[in-house]
């Protein structure tokens, strides 16, 4: 299950209502709490007195109503010790415990603990917990070569690419261990590959000049862009860019423009389209650029992305979730609106929205490929507001900031990526020199 904070584990304990279960579960919760884990016991009101307090150990107790009468038991019968050895009453007792599913689910929803330690006498609890931990991808969001549908030259090529990883000596990863420790461990221990996490590699660019000129010459003078951003308050501009390949239809661009205007947020929007001769462009609402003067900047062509993302005025990123852009957004410490189009971008979306919880999805349900116009202005407006000024913004922003700092620490001397790169170089020397 997802943790409410990435820095403190929070474990929910849910013991069966019998002293032989309540007592050891309480002790177990104390053991966890004594090691700095946040522990919460879930029980019914009449079982609360069974839990003894230990000085200096803080355990939270959450109660849920026991539906005794609804299950044919006397009022107040909430513990096995009050069912008087009657088989019928025991059956009713179990019936009552099954009715706890909904309130337990509600508690998990409200508190979002890291995991649930449920009594084996609540066999249904595992399925309930799984609802919160599952990251689901629909078939429509998966690449064809994974769906094993008709084999094409491209799907064959991609399969070979994945298989080649398994045959290689090891894998060099543009990521950092702290960003996705569970996946890094899985790769090493379950898939069994040697890996070196040496990223974010974009952090090797130390000055503005280097950060502005990655890949292509920017289509705008970076100083002009920085001057414009310099007039804005911190975290007041949203940056919108869909990577180096994606190209949207005119109707989708029109929806983006309308959504941005309705969001009332300042923006830099990168559009991979040159300006034509006409005064007004068909894909822009009438008078859009005039209305947006000073508020929004349309950047036609290639943006100095890393430089812009790192500016303190930029406080949000609408991204297609290409891995580089995702990691650059993480490194800049900004909340993201995820708008995946194809490839592995739907996986990256889940990482951002459900694992790291530093973004919200705009609502793409299937591969869009290069062109697409499936996302309406309302969804864009809503998502942009959620990362810039919504109720959840502060939480997302502070989690994003922490990740951004972790990213920078990872590549500094002694950091995890710095050490992995050293280890890789040493290992190569051993084999090659
Ligand atoms: N990029 C950029 N300016 C642009 C568009 C993209 O600097 O206008 C950079 C971006 O910073 C990232 C890379 O191009 O490093 C795009 O890679 P990503 O994996 O995000 O997406 P792809 O282009 O492969 O879909």
From TrEMBL:
Keyword Iron: no
Transmembrane segments: none
Pfam families, per the entry: UDPGT
Enzyme Commission number(s): 2.4.1.-
GO molecular function, one term: UDP-glucosyltransferase activity
UniProtKB keywords: Glycosyltransferase, Transferase
Claim: Glycosyltransferase is one of the keywords in the record: yes
PANTHER family associated with the record: GLYCOSYLTRANSFERASE, SCOPOLETIN GLUCOSYLTRANSFERASE-LIKE
Record family assignment: Belongs to the UDP-glycosyltransferase family.
The name this protein goes by in its record: Glycosyltransferase
Species the sequence originates in: Quercus rubra
